[in-house]
Specification:
Number of helices: 2
Largest sheet: none
Radius of gyration: 11 Å
Order of helices and strands: HH
Number of strands: 0
Shape: globular
Distance between the termini: 16 Å
Helix content: 55-70%
Structural class: mainly alpha
């Protein structure tokens, strides 16, 4: 659950500060699976 929250927070940061090319790019970013770090 925490990983999804982090991804949404990062998405908001990217969108507000840099923007995405288009709506499809936003959807693609959000639909990509979240990978868990290997070293934990």
């Amino acid at each position: 659950m925490q990983t999804r929250f982090n991804k949404l927070t990062y998405f908001k940061y990217l969108k507000e500060n840099f923007g995405f090319k288009d709506l499809e790019a936003e959807k693609s970013f959000l639909c990509r699976p979240v990978k868990k770090p290997r070293n934990f």
